[in-house]
Amino acid sequence: MTSRKLLIVGAHSADFVWRAAGVAAKTVDNGGEVRIVALSYGERGESGELWKEPGQTEDNVKRIRHEEAEAAARAVGATFEGFDLGDYPLRETPEAVDRLADLIRDWQPNVVLTHPDKDPFNPDHPVAHRIVAQARLLTSGAVVEAGFKTAPPTEFLVFEPHQPELCGFVPSVFVDITSVFEKKATAMEAMKAQSYLREYYTQRAEHRGNHARKVTGNKAIRQAEAFQRLIPNVVEAL
């Protein structure tokens, strides 16, 4: 069986931790590979704790955020790369799309995760979605022979936003992360610039674990992460 490759793309360096660190750890535990890309470090709009320090600079905030994200990625067995495109606002540019498309063509992930296309409270998350969606489409072309390098089509899902009801997020997949939750907790602990989010996302994992238990009847599930498929999955039988 070929190992699975999972690509997680966040607008900011900590986005993957809260929303998909569990599925990242689970993928690695199952013999797969995980790459994490942050389109920005969230240095301007997502690093409030760091800006409390007198004399703080953007360059230093980026450095700290990069170190935190690398530590969080290591905790779940993944690799981290920061595109450093700037935040608040993150801009959708041809260069950003091309850079991500090149990565997808070269690495050929099986699954791509990113933000939903709506978020009334965060200007960067919908932009990240558009960049990822466009890059993904360009890598597979029209799924026929093309005059440029292509890659096999990926599964495409979005992870749960902070306020799902207001972002049009309806979960269609729950991943049981009970066996790897301590790894997710370690990854969350690494994100000191946003430590105020740890309790919320710990509770969210337990909340989704409750939903997963009701769906399956499996009482052993304690924590889960929720995702929404944007592309139908194909199976041999129901």
Any overview of this molecule?
The chain is of the alpha/beta class. It has a single domain (5-229), classed as Rossmann fold. It contains six helices and seven strands, in the order βαβαβαβαββααβ. It has helices at 15-29, 58-75, 94-107, 124-140, 181-190, 198-216, and strands at residues 5-10, 33-38, 79-82, 111-114, 155-159, 173-176, 224-229. The chain has a seven-stranded mixed β-sheet, with helices on both faces. Helix 2 runs antiparallel to helix 5 (181-190) and helix 3 (94-107) packs across helix 4. The longest helix is centred in the C-terminal third of the chain and has 19 residues, at 198-216. The mean pLDDT is 96.
Task: Sum up the structure in keywords.
single chain; 238 residues; alpha/beta; Rossmann fold; seven-stranded mixed beta sheet; 6 helices; 7 strands
SSE arrangement:
Elements: E1 5-10, H1 15-29, E2 33-38, H2 58-75, E3 79-82, H3 94-107, E4 111-114, H4 124-140, E5 155-159, E6 173-176, H5 181-190, H6 198-216, E7 224-229
Parallel strand pairs: 1-2, 1-4, 2-3, 4-5
Antiparallel strand pairs: 5-7, 6-7
Helix pairs in contact: 1-5, 2-5, 3-4
Quickly describe the structure.
The chain has 6 helices and 7 strands; from the N terminus they run βαβαβαβαββααβ. With 238 residues, it is of the alpha/beta class.
Rg to the nearest angstrom?
Answer: 17 Å
Average pLDDT level = 96
Give, in spatial order, the strands making up the sheet with the most strands: 3-2-1-4-5-7-6
Q: Report the principal-axis shape.
A: globular
Please identify the structural class as seen in this structure: alpha/beta
> Order of helices and strands, N to C?
EHEHEHEHEEHHE
Strand content: 5-15%
Question: What's the helical proportion of residues?
Answer: 25-40%
> How many DSSP E strands?
7
CATH superfamily: LmbE-like
- What kind of sheet is the major sheet? 7 strands, mixed
| CATH architecture classification | 3-Layer(aba) Sandwich
How many individual domains?
Answer: 1
CATH class: Alpha Beta
Low-confidence stretches: none
Number of helices: 6
